[in-house]
Amino acid sequence: MANTYSQMYVQTVFAVKYRRAVIDQKWKPELLAVIGNLINETGCKTIIVNGVEDHIHCFFGIKPSICVSDVMKNAKAKSSKWINESGFLQHRFEWQSGFGAFTYSREHIDRIYRYIQNQEEHHWGISFTEEYIEMLIQHGIDYDEQYIFKGLM
After folding, report:
1. Residue 63 and residue 8: Cα distance in Å, rounded?
2. Is 44 exposed, middle or buried (CB count within 10 Å of its CB: 0-12, 13-18, 19+)?
3. Which of 20, 64, 101, 103 has its CA 20 to 30 A from that of 56?
């Protein structure tokens, strides 16, 4: 009997709506754990979730029977609900629509893990927009500047 075997690794990046810097250090570890668990809930395997005040990076192994959009829809919807129900903020929390998704092979796992693990240090010298555009270029993804994550209004 045939079986399905796969080895697919995805890094996703998504931002707080208008890239508001509202993810607080006090509750960020809980949020990261919630997002990791939500990814696992889809049958995928979380490797690391980390980010800074205005955006999140997720790195996970994905099953061939689920699409990245469904994983992100689940993680973003349920984590924003968790933030709102936890009462951490005075206003309603939302993630910006859309996300970036980038694939990697097994030999890249350690490098991507360290990159995501060191997000705070990384962002001392580069803005989120610069980082995101750099990732798009590195992966050969054509993009339209009008659809890059919106900044503060």
Report:
1. 7
2. buried
3. 64
Residue 108 to residues 9, 11, 59, 104, Cα–Cα distance (Å) = 9, 11, 11, 6
**Distance (Å, rounded) from C-alpha 124 to C-alpha 121?**
6
Return all residues near 14 (Cβ < 8 A) that are at least 6 apart.
55, 56, 72, 76, 95, 96, 98, 99, 100
Tell me: the pLDDT tens digits for 116-148? Answer: 999 988 888 888 888 889 999 999 999 888 777
Which of 1, 108, 21, 94 has the alpha carbon at shortest distance from 59? 108
| 51 DSSP β-pair partners | 56
Q: What share of the chain is helix, strand, coil (3-state, %, to 5)?
A: 45, 20, 40
Q: Partners of 115 in the beta sheet? A: none
Q: What is the pLDDT of residues 42-79, one digit of tens each?
A: 999 999 999 999 999 999 999 999 999 999 999 999 99
Q: Record the pTM.
A: 0.90
